[in-house]
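Researcher: Let's try something more involved. This one mixes different molecule types, so please make sure each is placed in the same coordinate frame as the others.
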Amino acid sequence: MIFRDGRAISCRRRTVYKGVPSFRFPVGRLPDEALLAGLATGDPELAVTFVRRFQRTVFGVAIAVTGDPQLAEDIAQQTFERAWRHAQIYDSRRGSVTTWLTTIAHNLAIDAVRARRAEPVAPEDLDALLDAVTETPEQWALADEASSRLRAAVARLPREQGRALVMAGVYGMTARQVADREQIPLGTAKTRIRTAMGKLRGTLAAPNRGDHVQ
Amino acid sequence: MSNDVTCERLREIGAELALGVLPGRERAEAVAHLDRCAACREYVGHMTLVGDGLIGLLPGHEPPPGFETRVMRALEKDATAHEGDPHPRTVGPARGPVRGRLRAARLRTASAVAAFAVAFGVLGWAVGTAVENVTASPPASSSVTAGSRLLTGSLTSASAPARPAGDLYAHPGEPGWIYMSVDLADAGTPYSGQVRCTLERSDGSTVRVGTFALRNGYGEWGTAAPVDATTLTGARLTAPDGTVLATGHFTGGPKT
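Model: All components are placed in one shared frame. Result:
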């Protein structure tokens, strides 16, 4: 199974561009995976194309988590450096290039935030981000079907579950930190995270997939 | 918490595990359970997809002016620091221990840089000299220039020529490179093992450009390669015993 642009697909992915002319192919239309391969071989124009294609997404993740433009820029730059160094280990069966890059950026941002401050996020930032995740018109317009379903599912969550989900899933806060922030018992925080994730999972996965109890 | 995490317990903490927020000891115990429970691995895999999807919902944001140039300079610096290694870089499915893969990737990255530097009498990656010109140009259409044209083609299985088996891309820039995605399984050849890639030229000559692994007929691979758009006609994938598994033709290339 792979995950591409928010969609879980239970088959092998192929980079197939049917009907595309077989000669004089502009780099701007190159599939993400092929562009990554070109980046790895050192073509400067492809590298610039790669950065241009993904910089908005990568910086968006970094600024959402950190709230600090300078820190976000550092993280976004590190993300592209890591992509350049580690393109060898990219495996398209595990997700799209976009997902791979956003995961790198997210992990770097979480590490940076944890290193800089004990309090991961201000309350007003949390609510603003939750609103942005669920109500950004631009994102609604551009999103694929799976992303739209996921966004709608987040929007349908009870507010307290949505907050717990964003705190854990975006800001990387532990259940204990969520409990402290919301002034609720630890078990309640865990339940909110688990329940929210379970509801979202239902929007992506086929019914009963992975439902197993030993 | 007991060292023996049950499936029921795993379902309680799987979301936190997938989001990377489970504290150390619990995480270790959960991972130990996953090592022996395929169903729970699948469950956590689904939860991980949800977490990835959540990150994918974050709104994009334009970086500050000059970001692109700074990134390119950083890549140039990184490339220069790793020059002088002996193997061409390849891109394909992950394999082997992570640490080894990362080291190998760095070695291969640097070698491609070194090869290019030798060929053009400069040190470091071409980004160093190209960044100013490339990043100074408008972002949308300027990326499509004469130097950025690609040859493309389709692979077909040797055993089922009528069925598509992947795609080919060849870039005649400096350095040239090729990239291919292969899916022989759909064409009835779920081959697993090493395959050799050979490029074919219009004069009948061939050049071996490397080997890579297929798993169940599937794989992706790219490498630096000599690509002359005026002579390159196709590519061939063969098993170690010489059996031709797939062939591809750059239909827009030179007449053969």
